[in-house]
Amino acid sequence: MGRRSTHTSDELRTLILEAAEDLIGEGGLSNLSAREIAKRIGYSPGTIYNVFENLDDVILHVEARLLDTLSARLDALPPGSSPSDDVERLAVAYLEFTHENPRRWNLLFEHHLPPGTPMPGWYQQKLDGLMDRVEAALQPVLPDHDAIALKRAARVLWAGVHGITSLSTADKLSSVTTESARPLVEDMVAVFLAGLKTMHSLATEPC
Q1: 6-52 pLDDT, tens per residue?
Q2: CB within 8 Å of 125: residues ≥ 6 apart
């Protein structure tokens, strides 16, 4: 693309993020640099730093766009036949999304800010929103759990599902099983929910 001086600030911002997404999708995080982004959009590398603070800021905004896309996907899920089915649908949708965007999704966990650099509040809110969604799906299944227990359960469930999706997107799942990722996710969710219900029943039984 040749240099264009007619881009607004918002247009230039979008161009940079789209180029960054393409570079990551093609070769992962190691494929990303200000110079390569600049080549893609026909501007100098310095232009990028007029729009974003640094390359980490670019990456965080790429990640944020991905989280927004995931959020929209989960918003569009039809209701299941039961609260447990809703949790399973959420987990399967998460799995399918990671398979559509493996390198970009893995970026969320490969990228680290420099030591001592705090996570921006706006970005943390997006991550918290994902956990809030898991909590909301679990709440009807575990109506008697207090807020702290529900938060912990949501994070344990997410970690389990994410572990399977990470192995699958990295093409490492075949090292430990011949099963595909989806039945493993479905089994993990079913066993997890059954275990939580059993633990709750034992905890509330009269002595």
Answers
A1: 788 899 999 999 999 999 988 888 889 999 999 999 999 999 999 99
A2: none
